[in-house]
Amino acid sequence: MTRTHEAARSSAATAAAATARTRSPRAGDMLAVVSQGGSSVTFFDAVGHGRLDVLPLPSQPHELCYDPARRLLYVSITYHAGYYHANAGRARELVVIDPDTRRIVDTVDLAPDHAPHGLLLDPVRDLLWVSVEATEEETGGLVALDATTRRRVRRVPVHAPGPHWFAVTPDGRRAYSANKEAPFVSVVDLETGEALDRIEVPGSEGIDISPDGRYVYVAAPKGDYHPGSVPGAGVRIIDTTTGRTVRTLATENVVFPVHTTSQGLLLAGELRVSAGSDGASLGTQEPGVLHIHDAGGEPLGRVPVGAFPLTITSSPDGRFGYVAAILDSTVTVVDLAEARVVTTLEVEHEGESGAHGLAYISAP
């Protein structure tokens, strides 16, 4: 492929992504929701919220990423069963779905890497980035696939065993990786593979970056399923220029998902664990809370959501938020301007693993 063709392809992908980020919801838009325990992805009408279809997947799917330039949906298959802290072996596949026909069109084997989790598209360089856990030979890292051929381009180590969620700067040059056990957020150069910084954070879960690239938002500390308040729990706001935490948005219990909308709102999902824990692997989870903040961290509202909020996404215009709760296996649709629940979507599941990954799919 010539440089001219590469530039044209990148320009088209960037334009498609920009259009998808700013357009208001309309007829034909869909919301895709993974059911981890149900090993499926459910498609909902994003306007009327009716269920459209359910597509079976290999077990156990985790996260979703939508490519608007090719109208493809990527699903990470992370474990054969279970969770990060208790699983029956690590999987290594990405499933590629045509959302319009609701069928699987490809499966990508990431071997020798395994446990793919987070997925992000870089439309500037036309790359799909995937986080993978450490193997016996290599630390955890970020693997880049060519978004057209789905062939491996490079692997960037993050020097921590368990990266799951990560964020990429708007220019596609740097990535910030949250690391469950490691007491730092990794900052890496995605072109050279160089480790740029380690930002002190006491173990971390969800992470995202502001649309202007000024701030990175990190949920910390890592998941604790014991009842009662967790000291230091909340969202750290990190200045990307200095690499320093400039503010902490405190919560009573741990936060897992963090998401920024196209309009710059910061959304965070707080877990709630009751005092009468029944010994379940994830504790006795009560309904969670969605916190809505502006980009600087000022509170704008709180909304009740399902038990164990795990993933958040939003509509292209930033008006609606979607919160997947894995234990209730629901998706709470929230009007972010009014801080109110619009409706709750039910997702089929088995056991305690339900709704997980989310993706908003704009109509053709």
Automatic annotation (TrEMBL):
Gene3D superfamilies: YVTN repeat-like/Quinoprotein amine dehydrogenase
Chain intervals with Low complexity compositional bias: 9-21
Superkingdom of origin organism: Bacteria
Alphabetical list of SUPFAM superfamilies matching this protein: C-terminal (heme d1) domain of cytochrome cd1-nitrite reductase (SSF51004)
Leader peptide range in chain numbering: none
Disordered: annotated segments: 1-21
Entry protein name: YncE family protein
Taxonomy of the source species: Bacteria, Bacillati, Actinomycetota, Actinomycetes, Kitasatosporales
